[in-house]
Write a structure and sequence with these properties.
The chain is of the alpha/beta class. The protein is built from seven helices and eleven strands. It has two domains: about 160 residues, Alpha-Beta Complex (Spore Coat Polysaccharide Biosynthesis Protein SpsA, Chain A), CATH 3.90.550; about 80 residues, no CATH class. Strands 1, 2, 3, 4, 5, 6, 7, 8 and 11 form a nine-stranded mixed sheet that branches. Strands 9-10 form a two-stranded antiparallel sheet.
């Protein structure tokens, strides 16, 4: 019978972390990698659930996870963010997969997300699948600063039972994250030799909004959908504006 470690990166998330770790307390091991700058008591919350804790400076999620994965001794790893949780139907499905012989080497898990406290059913988020469960020896994250994904050597299947994600609760939280992600995203593009075109600054944000709000039916999510689609378009604009600024100075850190 296979065993499972849940890997969780811990930022300042003390108000959400307990729900996350409680939802996977049945796992064989909980491995929490705490950002060295965390100062809201999140490390103390993590220690209520596990002694397997490491404190490490945070560069980006891919770097942190790739550092942690080789230290995991169980056959299976489930990656769970501090603002996510696993309901019982999904927990049962994960336990079945881990206990079975054979099967795939990785599993895409459907994710349903809340925005400002409201469950988003459209805006493209209804298609949100993430490869989070995989055989430890066969998974490694792509080396990129933002939206990195794990690559699995072997077959990948899909789990339809959803996990849940409590995203941004207010504008302060959204804009703090957006600043980091747009800078990292622009730096990744800059280092690949990409440069901002005028259409990236003018047309691309509009297309992003129309896709989210129209094609992906964000209008059915009411006010929350309209706000989310607008912010999504602005994030695209800001990323390419930062890429334009980086090209002016020739350094990938100049778009902050």
């Amino acid at each position: 019978m296979g065993k499972l470690t849940v890997l969780t990166l811990v930022p300042n998330a003390g108000d959400r972390l307990a729900r996350c770790l409680e939802s996977v307390s049945w796992a064989d091991d909980l491995f929490c990698v705490v950002d060295a700058k965390t100062n809201d008591g999140s490390e103390g919350v993590a220690r209520e659930f596990t002694d397997h804790i490491a404190v490490r400076p945070y560069e980006n999620a891919a770097d942190q996870r790739n550092w942690a994965i080789p230290q995991i001794e169980t056959e299976w790893t489930l990656v769970l963010d501090a603002d996510e949780w696993v309901p019982e139907p999904l927990a049962e499905e994960i336990r079945r997969i881990v206990a079975a012989d054979g099967g795939a080497d990785g599993y895409q898990i459907r994710r349903r997300s809340y925005f400002f406290g409201e469950l988003i059913r459209y805006c493209g988020w209804q298609r949100d699948y993430n490869l989070r469960l995989f055989r430890t020896a066969k998974g490694r994250y792509l080396e990129q600063r933002v939206h990195s994904r794990v690559e699995v050597q072997g077959a990948v299947n899909v789990v339809e039972e959803p996990m849940y994600h409590d995203t941004y609760r207010d504008f302060e939280e959204y804009f703090a994250t957006m600043q980091r992600f747009t800078t990292w995203g622009a730096a990744d593009l800059f280092e690949k030799g990409k440069r901002a075109r005028l259409s990236d600054l003018t047309l691309r944000p509009v297309v992003k909004f129309l896709k989210m709000y129209g094609l992906r039916r964000g209008f059915l999510d009411g006010y929350a959908g309209a706000v989310l689609c607008g912010l999504g378009a602005f994030s695209v604009f800001l990323k390419y504006a930062k890429l334009w600024a980086m090209a002016r100075t020739g350094t990938p850190g100049s778009g902050r």
